[in-house]
Design a protein that fits this description.
about 80 residues, 4 helices, about 0% strand
């Protein structure tokens, strides 16, 4: 049985980014310096791993998810493919 979207995304309500300006999670460039404010929020987030897995699963193309930029998520996906 497949879990409902509501059940699988309950982590969102516990995210440290709740109520913050979403634009900090979408820096103008993939430069790590531009992504630092978002990464700082993610670093203390109790659901960072669930957020990252969500982004990896959906192949999110933009933004910082689970403390990882688009470039970092692509690298994680490549590493997982190699080790599979």
């Amino acid at each position: 049985m497949k879990a409902s979207t509501t059940q699988t995304q309950t982590w969102r309500g516990k995210a440290a980014c709740q109520g913050l300006d979403p634009t900090i999670f979408y820096p103008f460039s993939e430069d790590d310096v531009d992504a630092e404010p978002a990464k700082a929020v993610c670093a203390v987030c109790p659901v960072r791993e669930a957020c990252l897995e969500h982004a990896l699963g959906l192949r999110e193309k933009e933004g910082v998810w689970g403390g990882a930029t688009e470039r970092e998520r692509r690298r994680i996906i490549r590493q997982r493919r190699r080790s599979a």
